[in-house]
Every structure is written in C-alpha cells, then in structure tokens.
Amino acid sequence: MLSLLLTLACSSPETPTAPAGDPVATGPVDGDTLVLAVPFDPGILNPLVAAYALTGWYTLATQPGLVERKVTPDGLTYAPKLAESWVWADDGRSITYTLREGLEWNDGTPLTAHDVAFTYELIQDPVVASNWHGDGKNIVRFDVVDDRTITFHFRSGGNPVLLQGTTIRGVVPKHVLEDADRATLRGHDYSKAPSASGPWHVSSWQSNEKIVLEPNGAQTVFPKPHLDRIITRIIPEYATRLLELQNGTNDMVSSLEKSDLADLAENYPHIRQIRAEAESMQYIGWNNKDPHFADASVRKAMSLAIDRQSLIDRFFKVGDEIYAQPCVGTVGPNLGAWHNDELVPLAHDPDQSRALLAAAGWADADGDGVLDNNGEPFEVTVIVQNGILRLKNLAIAMQAQLRDVGVDLQIQLLEPNRFSQLAREHDFEVILWSFGNNPKVDPYIQWHSEGQYNWMGYDDPETDALLEGARTVDSLEEAQRMVREAQARVFEAHPATFLFWEDEITGIHERFQGVSMNTFTVLEDVETWWVPADQQKY
User: Fold this and answer.
1) Which residues on adjacent β-strands are paired with residue 9?
2) Selection from 457, 490, 484, 453 nearest residue 469 by Cα
3) In angstroms, how far is CA 217 from the centroid of its own chain?
4) 452 confidence band (pLDDT: 50, 70, 90)
C-alpha cells in the first residue's frame, strides 16, 4: 500500500457451470468492456520507477517480467510469463531462465535476454533510483547466454522464494531507453507511452481522467484477451466511485469502506464482494530525523497515545464482523515463522504517554492545551494522500487522540505525485500510509537504512546487519530468525506506530467471470476474464 497499497489476496478464478444443453454459457466468449474506478492517476507506467502498487496493475498487464507471482495457501510461488522455464543451480546460488520463443515489443522489435539484462542494469544503477534498487544488490551478476537465455547469480542460496523474487521486475525495451537520461527516467516520455510486451497495451491516456487498455495485437505468445478493453476512470471522490458502482457506470471499485458493505449486499446484489484478509497494514510514521521525533521515547509516547482498538471498532467493525486486527510491524501475521509472535501491541495509555513527553522536556507552559519545549509548541503536520476516505478519517480520529496528550497534529491532504515525492525525499514530519502484506518477506526495503521505502529514516546498524544477513544466509531457518529479531528491534524503536492489518474488499459486477485477484494486482490474469454473451453491456 503501495505506494497506494490497494492490494487483494488470492481469490480463486470463478467460472460458472453452464446449464445442460445451453451452448451460450458453456465457456469463455469474447466481447464487452471492464470499467473500473480508482482514486488517482498512476502517474507513470515505467515498472522500474513507478511509485504505487496501483501502477503495478497496469505494468503487469503491459510489461510483464520473466515470471509472475502467485499467492497460494502454502505461500508465494512463481508462474511463467516472459520466461517459459527456469532451472536452479545445485548450490542454489544461480537461476537460469529460458525466454518464450516469439516475444516481441509492440513496435515489432524482438524482446530478448538483452532487454532483461538492460532492465537489471537500470535497477542496479543508483542514478536511476529504481524502487527495486535494493533487489539488485542481491544479484552479483547476470550473464546473457543467448537471445533467449539469461542466468542470474546471487550472493548466497538458502531462500529461493526471496532470491527469485529479485528477478521478477517488469522488463523494459533496451532499444527505446538505452540513450535515455537515467537520472530523469521518471520524466521520460516512455512513462506515459510505454512499450507493450504483454497481453495488453495502453491505447490512450488522458491524465487524471481516463486510461484505456486494449489487447496487444502484436504479441502472439499469451492468450488473447476476451474483453475488448479495460477503461480506468480516475475519480478522486470515494462517494462518486461508490455511487457509480451502484448504478452501473463503473463495474469495479477497490477498497470499499466497511460501513458500505451491508447496504451493498442488501440492495445491490449484482455487485459481488471479494474479501482479502490482512492485505495491508496501516501505519502513522514519524520522521526520525525531525527534531520532534529524534528521541525514541517521544515516538513511543505517540504510540501510547493512539487507541488502535477504538479505531478498529469505529472504522472496521460492521455488526459482528471485524475487518482489521492490531499489528506489530510490516511482516504479515499469516506468514508463519517469519512473523515474530512474541511481540504484543502497546496498550493505549495516555498517562504514560504524557509522562514520557514530560521527561523529554515537553510541558504545557502557557496552558493552551498544547505542549511546548523552549517556547516551541508541539505542532506537527501529517501528510495524507487525497482521495482515500479511510485514511482521511483515520487522520482526523488520531488528531483528536494526540490532542488529548498535548500534541497538535495538523492534516495536509496531497495529490498522489506530490505525496510520493515528499515521502521519497523524507520531506515531512508525519506520514499516514500503508504497506502491503508481501509474502516474499523482505523487510529490508522498509527498515534497512538504505531501504527504498524507509521513509521514516530509521537507522540502526544492528537492524541493517540482520536484514542483510536474512538476504544472504544459506539457511532458511536462520533467515527467519534474523527477520524476527529485526522486527523486534524496529518495534522497540517505534519509527512508526503500527496500527492494524486491514481486510480489503473489492466490488465487481457479477457478469464478469473467471475473475481472480492477488496481493499484487486486482487484475490478475485479466486477459482470461470474460462475460457471457447474453450479459454483455458494451
């Protein structure tokens, strides 16, 4: 989340059984359009520098990687995409991919292993500032054997899920980007008009209004999509997205507010609700480099001041159903030995919070209800991405809870690209955002001092060593122990207040069949989605 982490867990594809003797509904047919609504424009569609998980919905469809991630009851696994097969070396320290025959970019240029190597050159180049630069550090080198074969060599073995996960990024075309300025890759024209190698291509894009995907007629190695097109409408207001889902203007909306679920079920039976448990965790992060939050005891005071359970009861409880659970970090509670089960969320204790703040020199000297230190009031601003009603409401609720201990929290709603820029540059005091439940399990990206999503500026050499070790150790059990220990160190340092793991709900019109979603995209294998001929709308 992110990034806007609108992420959903694995949902089995749904294909109805046709009535006996009914030739119309016996299997997938072509035709119709999927119209979905999202709160903001993804901004850029270069998979190496894209800021949001939402962006991945489109890059996975247009610019896939060697393999694609699949979430199963047993955890994360990988399925062929650009690569038709792969083989591990006996020592587990290298993997060799064989690309499918006949891969092409939509301009007719062959897609080869040289494009894959070029992609990873960009990822490893610090000038590019790729979101996946940390992944590239785990790769010692890559060798192009021939046009269809490439081998990745790793620093160690021991954790094949994590290691293969560093080789999955969307492949970009060398012939288009070879001469691009790497320092300004985000602003390159390619980001708005990307090449396509997957089942879909971007046929039109009106910024902040609409994105249209259509089948990529140039590719011949993937199934031809059944749908004629996918139209994404950018609608910042949640109430409008919901209304248009109800009246059929939109077919699909993610991150439905929990308070709307009962009404949808009762009055709009044509909307199928797909639930994904513990799919994203919400946090409020404290900039550890900011003078207000440089002291860990002050950050702990913030955590003690926030009543997580009241937030869950208020925003995530509908009747007897609860759609969230308290959390202690960014490793999902469903990830077995990776999760540190010994950690327990801090209980709400405003008195202890006030005591810690007083010990750190904060007192209400002028009696206005706001703490101050040497004449400076404890007034800070939380940045929140506009268009996500849940986050705005959470910010308002926590504003009141922090005010109760003397902290004046101001709320600044930002458009997505500005929010992302300030987060990357650590140019904020407080941030409210989400992390997805990534079954690859690599908290390096969030809590290593050089992690690309360590927006809070947490810096602890011992945590760094643990996270580096978890990436390179040859023993899976030792990697898990290191991750658990790193979780404990982060938890004790309170770089952020971990609020809760949230279940995500997506609404989609029931006419769509073969629908599947996973942690990484709500458009999983969307080329296989279809609509019965007698239910087609467009």
Assistant:
1) none
2) 484
3) 29
4) confident
